[in-house]
């Protein structure tokens, strides 16, 4: 994983983000923190040019507009033409028909490298409808030690079916290419009290797969470990009276400061 | 007020926000800090589904677009059908015709639970035109100890006329259902040096009235006290060299950490 | 420069910002930090009214939409009618045809007071096409001690040709009205690891030229010195483990706390 990190810092991947307006600033700052470079553009007339100067594309459907959906499809097709990695973050798939339909349409029309979401969102994509409540995973869907084997099988199967890397994040994170599955146990539950840690991870993961195109599975898993480990490091620096706003900053700071050695020492994963 | 807080933390109200892109991230984080859960969506094709999975709706006109106005009206009508509380934050009403007209149209077409704004915005809604300068209240309108009696009468009267809870925030805050009026003296003037403390309060207030539907007036007044008290606690944690950016984080942190006992002890209000 | 700062704090210039949704919150907070007052609006139907209640207009093309382009042109023309200063920040000009064309169109249709960008963006505007990579300056274009004389000549010449103040920011900053050129050496390279320090500077610079209309060149140069000095002060307050998220807050905090004496003592510039 250290090598994946080195490649991001060395190559400074330029990532085109079509993402929601809620968490976009944090996505930009975590991309800079990890060693990438962000650019945002969703206007259909602008996206093809922008994607052409970038190395990878991060599509996040957290706040859709009619014109940004068109932008996502145009940018995705251009990225496919150019051979750039494309990540989809299906925020809120299952919570509305527009979100579910848009995510499914993007999966159909664009060759994706990675799909990253919570378990409810990914189940919605797999089964065509879901139980997502808002933008957080439904408790009934949660990946726990008890449901782990079934969840791994589900993720592997969906990765094979879609020919994508599937990254399901939650208390336990799963990242699979259909053959093997990283089971990752970094992170802290308090990260769920910050808006956009998932969006931030998607941005950073796009930088990782862009700078590590010969090993996208390890790159995606590395990004998940880094985010979780940053959550642990950030938490360890919290002082009395600090809450979720300060925690948000500490996590991005931890990504900024993390070394390859920190990552190798702190990453908690097994390969199944 | 402690019971209102307990209900928010126990019920985790899911709040649909159609809000401006300036302060949206802080609105999401303060909703998480107080124990609620935020989701943002303004696209007309998306809003009815999203509001249907939520418990309350927060409409903020801080940065209007033609399509988001349509989204506000569709979401508001759906929320009314479902019996969800709806809050209106008429940001900048009086500063432009579009803002004034949109706020008045929303008041006419949607049954609102609460309207929360500064005194200039609320006067604009009451009299149909205003003196708002930008998004801050006009000095001539300010609620002071000298003008307090008149201001209380104005707020009570407007609450009766609209059948809404009216929350006017400033140096002294007034929250009334037309019968009684909470007069609240929490907060610090330095909060005006942070963008979006009003927007944040509107988001949190929506969570409060959603989780406390049998006592919306007390819930709205509780949210005002919490925001002001968080401003006081956050200020007490400021260190040499800290400014408005750090203060912003400290306020959200203080909401995150506040207990019911802190609130009961720190709330400064009288009922008139 | 102290007098320019005093004028901003005394006059509290209200600045209308049509800016990107990535860094808009930081732009609002730095405007408040420096003593100005921000309002954001990009909807064509809203912008003329909003600009009319403001004193200056900040146009930033970081995330263009068809409707916001129309808003920029309408607001710019109204600001010209009213004699308000107008600043253009051509974010990403050279990276896409839409950005380049929009910046050139704004230059043609609106009388601008200041254009502020990185060297690649400004060269794109001067030569009609560019080598901008994303939103960061191309290394080949960088203003260094070796290329300084040529860069000064270029900036002076472009300022004369456009009858605007031209502010090129980077490791060395240049601000010229065509006659003289401020060469400024404040700032730190780590500022490039925060999204939006350029956008923030543009917002603050608009406040400065608005409150100092009889000396816009000195006002623009003052804003550049303040931003760079805030970067130095903010950096001096960084603690072990702090990264770019905390640094972002510290810079805005430093603007908030800076006195005229701090500025006079810390500003590092020569006039050429």
From TrEMBL, chains A, B, C:
E.C. no: 2.7.1.50
Pathway stated in the Swiss-Prot or TrEMBL entry: Cofactor biosynthesis; thiamine diphosphate biosynthesis; 4-methyl-5-(2-phosphoethyl)-thiazole from 5-(2-hydroxyethyl)-4-methylthiazole: step 1/1
GO BP field: thiamine biosynthetic process; thiamine diphosphate biosynthetic process
Gene3D superfamilies the UniProt entry points to: 3.40.1190.20
Keyword hit for Protein biosynthesis: no
CDD domains in UniProt: THZ_kinase
Recorded superkingdom: Bacteria
UniProt keywords, alphabetically: ATP-binding, Kinase, Magnesium, Metal-binding, Nucleotide-binding, Thiamine biosynthesis, Transferase
Entry binding sites for ATP: 116, 169
Cofactor(s), names only, from the UniProt record: Mg(2+)
GO molecular function: ATP binding; hydroxyethylthiazole kinase activity; magnesium ion binding
Reaction catalysis annotation: 5-(2-hydroxyethyl)-4-methylthiazole + ATP = 4-methyl-5-(2-phosphooxyethyl)-thiazole + ADP + H(+)
Residues that bind substrate: 40, 196
Described function: Catalyzes the phosphorylation of the hydroxyl group of 4-methyl-5-beta-hydroxyethylthiazole (THZ).
UniProt similarity note: Belongs to the Thz kinase family.
Name listed for the protein in its UniProt record: Hydroxyethylthiazole kinase
């Amino acid at each position: 994983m250290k090598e994946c990190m080195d490649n991001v810092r060395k190559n400074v991947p330029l990532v085109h983000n079509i993402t929601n307006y809620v968490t976009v600033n944090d996505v930009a700052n975590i991309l800079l923190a990890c060693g990438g470079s962000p650019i945002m553009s969703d206007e259909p007339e602008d996206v093809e040019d922008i994607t052409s100067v970038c190395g990878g594309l991060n599509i996040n459907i957290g706040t859709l507009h009619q014109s940004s959906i068109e932008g996502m499809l145009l940018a995705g097709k251009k990225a496919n033409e150019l051979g750039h990695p494309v990540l989809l973050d299906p925020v809120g798939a299952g919570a509305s028909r527009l979100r579910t339909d848009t995510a499914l349409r993007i999966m159909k029309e664009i060759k994706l490298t990675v799909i990253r979401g919570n378990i409810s969102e990914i189940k919605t994509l797999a089964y065509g409808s879901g139980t997502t409540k808002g933008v957080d995973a439904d408790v009934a869907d949660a990946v726990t030690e008890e449901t782990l084997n079934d969840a791994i099988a589900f993720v592997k199967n969906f990765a094979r079916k879609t020919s994508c890397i599937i990254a399901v994040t939650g208390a336990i994170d799963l990242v699979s290419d259909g053959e093997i599955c990283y089971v990752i146990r970094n992170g802290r539950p308090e990260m769920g009290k910050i808006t956009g840690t998932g969006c931030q991870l998607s941005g950073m993961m796009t930088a990782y797969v862009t700078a590590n195109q010969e090993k996208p599975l390890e790159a995606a898993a590395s990004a998940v470990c880094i985010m979780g480990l940053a959550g642990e490091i950030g938490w360890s620096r919290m002082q009395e009276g600090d809450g979720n706003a300060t925690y948000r900053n500490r996590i991005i700071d931890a990504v900024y400061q993390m070394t390859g050695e920190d990552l190798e020492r702190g990453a908690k994963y097994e390969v199944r």
